[in-house]
Amino acid sequence: MIAITYMMETIPGLMIGVIHNPNSGKKDHEGKMKSFLSLLTKEGIEYDYRETQGPGDACTLAAELADHCDTIVVASGDGTLFEAINSIWEKDISLAILPYGTGNDLYKGIYGADFSEEKIVSIIKNGNRRKVDCARVNDTYTMTLIGAFGFPADMVIKHKETGCSYGRTIPGLLTHINRRNYTLKIDGKEIGYETEFIGVFCTGSAGGGMCVTKLSSMTDGVMEVVVIKKSSVIRRLLNLFAIIRGRLDFQPNVDKFQFTECTIIPEKTATCNLDGEVIDFDVFDVKVLKQKLEFLVE
Fold first, then answer.
1. What pLDDT sits at residue 242?
2. What is the pLDDT of residue 233?
3. Distance between CA atoms of 95 and 66, rounded to whole angstroms?
4. Cα–Cα distance, 224 to 139 (Å, whole number)
């Protein structure tokens, strides 16, 4: 693991940890990272820089940096962010993001589509703090974005296998309907679904910024369950167009619920897209936490 610490002529009391995954996204951000570190130096911001070498490294690095840093900047995609957040979610640490991944949904949910290294440095130096919802899954994982079965998981698996963007991955999946049976437990009720898409969301967009539900807010203390009920290939296409237009909420074959606790039970072990990582579950039990994550924002 590469570690660089800059400590001369710094702003008193401000220490930034930087975790960089050089293999995230298009892997073309080495120059951008050098520019970002130079900007920190120029602004007199003390930093401790670390690079991941493989899966799981961000968990270790985040825990190490949390011992002496006020803020941790994660330069990566959502998967590396997931690792870092799961390591520090109970600690008094602020977070910021350099969106160097493929989808960058957490960045878009917090900062919007606009990005530059200068913007993040300005936020670190002068920004405010924003509390963002998160939830525990099976008392094991902390999620901030999405936990979805069916098509969303298939999309991430295909992306990881081929290295193609989500935009190039989706068309090849549209003609393959792969429905599974799930039981949804929410508000004391049980609902059975045969579906290719069921998931919980803390943000309205997922998978490269596609709008899944406009109901979702990252700061309202609740999350959403979205289920696309049994559909044909034509209805799939109509749903995709609705997502592009931000109108999936209004489609006739879509159910939506808000919750603080819910459970999704696949008929048999199923793969979930959990904040950009693919993990198998027999039971997917979600509880929204009263304790929120803190991000630096404008």
1. 82
2. 76
3. 11
4. 19
Q: What is d(CA 191, CA 225) in angstroms, rounded to the nearest whole number?
A: 12
Task: Write phi, then psi, for 230 (nearest 5 degrees).
Answer: -45, 130
**Residues 165-211 pLDDT 10s:** 656 666 566 666 678 999 999 988 999 999 988 999 998 766 556 67
pLDDT digits (tens, 9 = 90+) for 127-136: 899 999 999 9
**What is residue 96's predicted lDDT score, i.e. its pLDDT?**
97
- In which residue ranges of the chain is pLDDT below 70? 1-13, 159, 161-177, 205-210
Residue 150 CB contacts under 8 Å (≥ 6 apart), including other chains:
178, 179, 180, 195, 196, 197, 198, 199
Q: Label each residue of the chain as H, E or C.
A: CCEEEECCCCCCCCEEEEEECCCCCCCCCHHHHHHHHHHHHHCCCEEEEEECCCCCHHHHHHHHHHCCCCEEEEEECHHHHHHHHHHHCCCCCEEEEEECCCCCHHHHHHHCCCCCHHHHHHHHHHCEEEEECCEEECCCEEECCEEEEEHHHHHHHHHHHHCCCHHHHHHHHCCCCCCEEEEEEECCEEEEEEECEEEEECCCEECCCEECCCCCCCCCCCEEEEEECCCCHHHHHHHHHHHHCCCHHHCCCEEEEEECEEEEEECCCEEEEECCEEEEECCEEEEECCCCEEEEEC
Residue 142's beta-bridge partner residues?
136
- The pLDDT score that the predictor gives to residue 8 is 44
